[in-house]
Amino acid sequence: MHIDIFLRFSTRPGQSIKIFGNSSAWKGNDIIHALPMQYWDLNHWHFKLSLEETELEILKELRYTFVFLTENGESILDWSASRSILLHDIADGTVILDSWLHMGEYENAYKTAPFKSVFNKGITAVRHIHRKDADNVLFSVEAPLLSPDEHLALSGDDHSLGNWGKSGFIPMKFNGESWLATVPIARLEKTLQYKYCITDQSGKLIRYEDGDNRMLKLPQIGQKVFVRDNYANFNIHWRGTGVAVPVFSLRSGNGLGVGEFTDIKLLVDWAKSVDVKMIQLLPVNDTTSTHTKADSYPYAAISAFALHPLYASIDTITGKKYKKYVKDQLSKATKLNASPGVAYEEVMALKWQSLSILYDLMGAE
Predict the structure, then answer these.
(1) N or C: fewer beta carbons within 10 Å in the chain?
(2) Whole-model pTM?
(3) Which of 326, 214, 307 has its CA nearest to residue 260?
């Protein structure tokens, strides 16, 4: 199987593009195995990929990543990290027309777990989208902030694209990541103009995307064309109230004179009750170096991995079984919790004493 991969990307003399992926053509899915793409014209770079029949039986999807090389030899990865396409959706001679994704696109944030799993989880994905038809163009685009009652559609200046809505809009289906539409376009040699648009569930137009019409002039004609546009231009922004706090300030009656990891749940409960959407914690890494109050500065970490013992909840670690062994340390809680500020050195001494005792008792567990 032969696949032509095009990247829409304009470069200056001395700049170039490479590509690597999970096919055997790259000898390994790593940047060190990246192969050069060929300059095609002012707006496109090209790579011809050949897949063996034995490889088609093993690989379920093709994954690949673009690398931009500056005049100074600096390597910059495409921000999509790894693009993928299911092999059963493409045929021999398929043309993939990709777009570079810049690091600075604000929509990139909406692809992270909080937005996909918490803030924007209302759109149901279609599990099976059949797009095996030959002689067509498959359009793919992302629109991270659509509401559950909004759908994406396609419209353009070709009859197969609905003649700008005169013949209707081409509905798109959501696969959990992207919106997809397969369009049988007969005259691929002409330059197409199109836009993505939002419709309601009945297919009625709500709005077109912002900006100029998108232009599609295929650099090479294939049996099947896959057009990947990164984000639809709807200029939709997410806004939410947030709070930024150091853990040591989350003091509760359960602690030992300082906010502890177990107090974060109390903060979450409060945030939910007042509709605060996000919580940012100051660093919680260990800063113990001088064993003085100077170590209380949360940005002087001695490790990128070790958590600060200051925030350990001794009461929670002991449970009922071991509480009697650190009762002297826990007896200081009332006094320390009444302190107007964190008595850092005294609290740290008690925490170290308690943790040392408990480790000797509980280390094997």
Answers:
(1) C
(2) 0.77
(3) 307
